[in-house]
Amino acid sequence: MKFSIYRYNPEKDDKPYMQDYEVTLQPTDRMLLDAILRIKAMDDSLGLRKSCREGVCGSDGMNINGKNGLACITPLKDLKEPVVLRPLPGLPVIRDLIVDMSQFFKQYHSIKPYLVNDNPPPQKERLQTPEDREELNGLYECVLCACCSTSCPSFWWNPDKFVGPAALLQAYRFIADTRDEATSERLDNLEDPYRLFRCHTIMNCADVCPKGLNPTEAIGKIKEQMVKRMV
Amino acid sequence: MVNRIVVGAHYGLRDWLLQRISAIVMAVYSVAILLCLLPRLPLTFDEWHAWFAHPVVKIGTLLFMFSLLLHAWVGVRDIFMDYVKPFGLRLGLQVLVILVLVVYALWAIALLWSV
User: What are the sequence ranges of the domains in chain A?
Assistant: First the structure.
């Protein structure tokens, strides 16, 4: 199978270049990550992140034939050859397919991604009704792979100011959580022309999410809560 | 001055809502005017004149114009926020656009009320 992979080692290369590889696959190679690891066995200078190899850790996010995704859950049979692999767009490249995620995590931390509840915790746990719990489905599953935020033009133009789809999905995860008591502060924190309202609903995020989540919908629900609060 | 990244202007919802509401007003006006005018085409100058002299049409058209200008303001400002990075230039462009849109608004009023 033919591959064309983005290579850049800032210590050695003046500028990035694409390197072609041809690799013989074994019958057990089902996912893109399997093929990349075969390439890595041929050329150990290729840099990439990976860990769980089953779409849970979110570390092997990359741009696959022009669309962001997780290599470990992208079936090889669906890919057109040569498979063009590039690092996630919009973030600084550390080496080859490895990007610097600092900005992404800075935005994630800015939404306080933890439960805020100052009441003393009960003996066992803070309970929710099944209906309230239902609202968290499609939110908590996010693995923070950054495929969505790095496919969002608003995040490309303003990564330092726009929170981005991944962190906004998490923001709504806590706004929607009935056990959280900081809803108003969370909405205050997001009511900003840059932090939330750079989203122009183009839905690249929902299109690429490897977990099938819909950040655009969550962003819409945050706006809905704000309208509800205002009128 | 140190170069700090500052956010937290605490506005945005009103503009976002305004853009949606103005879009609805424009859509309703456009459909209404087409439905009213299409069956009567072709219109003579006197018919056009009488049509736009009607107060309901005048107010409706003015409402459409204001919606258009407000909608344009939010859209153009969004483009500046995305693409114009030096904030002095951004402010200058925004002021310029506001002035132009106000001129358009006054012009629209003058036109509609001259009929």
Answer: 2-99, 102-230
* 3 state SS of A42: helix
B1 — pLDDT class (breaks 50, 70, 90): low
Domain span including residue B24: 13-113
CATH topology of domain A2-99: Ubiquitin-like (UB roll) (3.10.20)
Q: What is the pLDDT of residues A121-176, one digit of tens each?
A: 999 999 999 999 999 999 999 999 999 999 999 999 999 999 999 999 999 999 99
Cα–Cα distance measured from residue A26 to residue A29, given in angstroms and rounded to the nearest whole number: 5
Q: Report the domain count for chain B.
A: 1
Mutation choice for A interface testing from B4, B14, B82 by most A CBs within 10 A = B82
Residues on chain B touching A189 (C-beta within 8 angstroms):
8
Interface touch B78/A200, C-beta < 8 Å: yes
Q: Where are the beta strands (DSSP E) in A44-149?
A: 61-64, 67-70, 83-86, 93-95, 98-99
The pTM assigned to this predicted structure is 0.91
Domain-located, residue B5 = no
Tens of pLDDT, residues B20-50: 999 999 999 999 999 998 888 888 899 889 9
ipTM surpasses cut 0.90 = no
- In whole angstroms, give the CA distance from residue B30 to residue B24: 10
Q: Does residue A42 contact residue A24 with C-beta atoms inside 8 Å?
A: no
Homologous superfamily, domain A102-230? Alpha-helical ferredoxin (1.10.1060.10)
In a domain, B4, yes or no: no
Query: Which residues face A69 on adjacent strands?
Result: A62
